[in-house]
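U., I forgot to send this yesterday:
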Amino acid sequence: MSLSPQRPPFCPAKLGGATRGGRGAHAGVAAAVAVLLEAACGRVLLTRRASTLRHFPNLWVPPGGHLEPGEELVAAGLRELAEETGLRLEPGTFSWNLLGLWESLFPPSLSWGPPRCHHIVTYLGLRSAEPQQRLQARLCPSPCEVSAVAWLEPPVLEAIAATEDGAEGSGSGPGPFPGELPATVGITELSPHGFRSSQIPTGILLRRAPARGPDLERVSTGTKFALGRWRAGPGRGQRE
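Result:
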């Protein structure tokens, strides 16, 4: 596996954009970690970012965030998982593997303005020995960061990974929609009164990043990269 950071074809860094400092921006390039948590049944947890967040609102992503000084990757991933979803994994109940590095800038395209933050994200795959139902019962997402959660099945995850952002002529519509996929997927939304089970069209998760105009609810480009590595990795979950 190459440990060089990957990035989308429309990445401002690739096109010569420089990270600018400013109000609420991070100077230079910051380190971050994100975790794809896989339950024993093979479903993977994604979260929808809160609409009030400054960076990437309403996008579906794995739990993640900044590394603290001196913090190890797995410890940081477990901390972010707990802070964002309330899930705490005990030692010996999961295995992990490194999926890859991703260069992330916001806004993700120069057509939306100059970059305001710049991260190198390490994606980790965590495979829990626990069933999805037990993990779901312990979920307590932070409403400041998360507006919904979903445990997605492998066929949906594979279709998401196959949807390429930034391909010439791809537009912002949904990517390939295999006939065997369900028309909708179940999610758990946060509301002022607690959790609410809901359904969203599967096509929302297959949307491509728009080249211009307002962003859409979709799966982030970096998450698609990580899901592609998760799907292809025969060594998934081999390291403690």
